[in-house]
Structure prediction request, 192 residues.
Amino acid sequence: MQFIFLGPPGAGKGTQASLLAARWQVPHISTGDILRAAIAGKTSLGIQARTHVEAGELVPDILIMALIRERFEAADMKQGWILDGFPRTLAQAQALDELLTRFRQPHPQAIYFDVSTENLVTRMLGRGRQDDTAATIRRRLEIYQADTTPLIDFYEQRECLTKIDGNRSPEAVTQSLQASLLTHQSSRLALV
Ligand code: AMP
Prediction:
């Protein structure tokens, strides 16, 4: 049960990840949540990440990889996990590959949440988060296009990408995710 939730900001990844992580009893790792907590707690990571997050820019890969490596050391990661908002760059995806090989978890399934730009903007403006101003939303969408969309191809080429229509209601999206989990599990079993 190793899932990478991929998609633009405002796609509903966080909502679905927390729901399914509770249902499947696996950790939900949101790099955005970890960074926001670090910023609020004024930790060394928070101090280094703050200006990037507030501007809607990506936090440098080196900081993100340090926090992910540390999180993967925890015992609760052995039974599976959902990664939400990570990886976001090709460098992060490659570093994650190395990490997963080291932890003998080399077969993650990537779920791509496809949502129209119009819906994304409406959702982000509606959630009222501090970094959800019109200017940062525009910037985050530009960065998503430039740095994160190449990951769709990256995981598609390995035939481990499932595309979900994220324009629908949260309940409909959850149902599709549950169905794709079953398909994923049965195809893995078929390989054994
Ligand atoms: P999110 O909650 O996933 O939308 O993330 C909020 C902000 O945290 C982003 O706009 C970035 O500034 C930063 N962030 C979260 N995850 C990453 C990541 N994997 N790589 C770089 N920056 C990130």
Remarks:
- The mean pLDDT is 93.
